[in-house]
Design brief:
Layout (H helix, E strand, L loop, with lengths): L2 H20 L5 H11 L1 H26 L8 H17 L7 H13 L1 H35 L7 H27 L2 H8 L6 H10 L1 H16 L2 H28 L6 H19 L10 H12 L4 H27 L7
Helix pairs in contact: 1-14, 2-14, 3-4, 3-6, 3-11, 3-14, 4-5, 4-14, 5-6, 6-7, 6-10, 6-11, 6-12, 7-10, 8-9, 11-12, 11-14, 12-13, 13-14
Length: 338
């Protein structure tokens, strides 16, 4: 990638960080007070996410190895993973910054088609694991209802039903996409969007064979390399479960210590909040959506609103930290231009 293009991505991310800082609902004095209150738990959360990004990079490496040799080191993939998520987090509609950036950075190592297919496959696996994560949370909630730990009213019953339909529909669509590929169909869909129609049609006509090859590489991971497929799915799914510790640490900070049951509550809070926030994916950092999700989910678990507000605040601080790290990594360790 040229330095000029890299600078454009950097400026987009930098502008987004400024917007993030200005959209905090608390003053900087209150923010600093809350950071001090979190203390070493905030450090633990930041370190936790370093581990989660490492799992993401390992998933990406497994996907790359599933289609041939992987000449890219794990550390470079980790660098691109952190920067890619930083750009996705900072830009509206997600995926508008991080995925193109990773494709362009990876292309010199594995070629455009493999770079594109691996990034698309990673994004698909990341979202696919979320559907299984959300589906697991539904059955977990119902088990806790049967054990008498949670209640199930008509409103919550309707929400769980709609979540179940949504998850099964998503899993079905992704399985179809893995079997037949989905890049060509995605471009066909974009061709129907006003304002993008002409560009998408020109892109499809000039890259028809390349798009078909990417789809073939996607279907090959599912059809021929089952080991890589399930290994990457397992890593992404386990990563979602480990992410629950972020909420569990804050619960411990507030003195909510119910052992394993407390962790299960954290798991459910994360699942319901992430689903609600992802439905509002067109907001940068999912501003507003995640705060509302935390407030509703913590209340449903019988916890106070103050815990939900504090969790959302700490998540913002953690995101700002790793977004800044991602932008710094964008500027260092790049191969010299030829």
């Amino acid at each position: 990638m040229s330095n000029k293009v890299r600078n454009i991505f950097f400026l987009i991310g930098l502008a987004a960080i400024v917007v993030m800082c200005l959209t905090f609902d608390v003053s900087f004095a209150d923010l600093w007070q809350n950071i001090q209150k979190a203390g070493y738990w905030l450090v633990a959360i930041i370190v936790l996410w370093g581990g989660l990004y490492s799992m993401n990079a390992l998933t990406w490496k497994i996907i790359l190895k599933g289609s041939g040799d992987c000449p890219v080191s794990f550390w470079r993939l980790l660098k691109l993973t952190i920067t890619g998520f930083a750009l996705n987090c900072a830009t509206p509609v997600g995926l508008l910054g991080g995925e193109p950036y990773k494709i362009m950075e990876l292309t010199p190592y594995v070629g455009g088609q493999r770079a594109t297919s691996s990034v698309v496959l990673f994004s698909m696996m990341h979202i696919f694991s979320h559907f299984w994560f959300w589906l697991t949370s539904i059955f977990t909630y119902l088990i806790l209802v049967l054990l008498g730990h949670l209640s199930l009213g008509p409103g919550m019953g309707l929400i769980l039903f709609l979540m179940t339909v949504f998850c099964f529909a998503g899993i079905y669509l992704f399985i179809k996409g893995y079997k037949n590929g989905m890049v060509v169909k995605l471009i066909d869909f974009v061709c129907k969007i006003p304002g993008l129609k002409k560009w998408a049609m020109r892109f499809r006509e000039s890259h028809t064979e390349d798009l078909k090859k990417v789809d073939r590489q996607i279907s090959e991971l599912h059809g021929q390399n089952k080991r890589s497929f399930f290994a990457s799915l397992f890593l992404e799914y386990i990563g979602r479960i480990f992410q629950s510790f972020e909420i569990y640490f804050v619960m411990l900070l507030f003195g909510v210590n119910d052992g394993f049951l407390g962790f299960v509550y954290a798991f459910l809070i994360l699942a319901f909040t992430s689903l609600f926030a992802n439905l509002l994916f067109f907001f940068p950092m999912q501003i507003g959506g995640r705060e509302g999700g935390f407030a509703m989910s913590t209340s449903q678990m019988g916890l106070t609103n103050s815990i939900g507000i504090f969790i959302s605040l700490i998540c913002r601080v953690r995101e700002l930290f790793w977004t800044a790290v991602g932008l710094i990594l964008m500027r260092i360790g790049n191969p010299p231009q030829k």
